[in-house]
Amino acid sequence: MRSALFVAFIISFLVSATYAGPCVYGLCQSACAAGVMTCYGCAGAVFGTIAAAVASPAILGCNAMFGACSSACACTLLLPTP
User: Whole-angstrom Cα distance, residue 2 to residue 7?
Assistant: First the structure.
């Protein structure tokens, strides 16, 4: 009886928190992509068609924003979500 109670306790502890980090990470990356697409559109360009060597300062700013946003999303990958 005591071991069954211990197993039930362990199972309830493991089920209490789910790891939804990959879902949150995907949503965060989607938001970053939408932001960079909007930024490129406002700068009069299409994302993915401009080389960094010939990019305007506005495009370089969009790239910097996209990099910062993507790196901020990385912390959500392994976060437990209750």
Answer: 9
